[in-house]
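We examine the record.

___
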Amino acid sequence: MVASLGEAYQETISTFKTRIVVQGDPSLLQSRMMPERVRACLMAGIRFGLLWHQQGGRRWKLVFQRKALRRALDSLS
């Protein structure tokens, strides 16, 4: 699953002109599955942002309604 999400990221998002730069220890990125994991996390984050925006989420809501969002998340757990 992680490999397929990483592959989907590589085939779609990574082809855009604006690039996401991942910083960190290069030796960690050279391990076997780490690049796929990073790509899968980036894909999930972009997908979440798109869904949030489609549901009416805006930047100013995140800034001004942070406490309400935290309470709602805390009530879920």
Notes: The chain has a mean pLDDT of 89. Residues 2-76 form one domain. The longest helix spans residues 34-54.
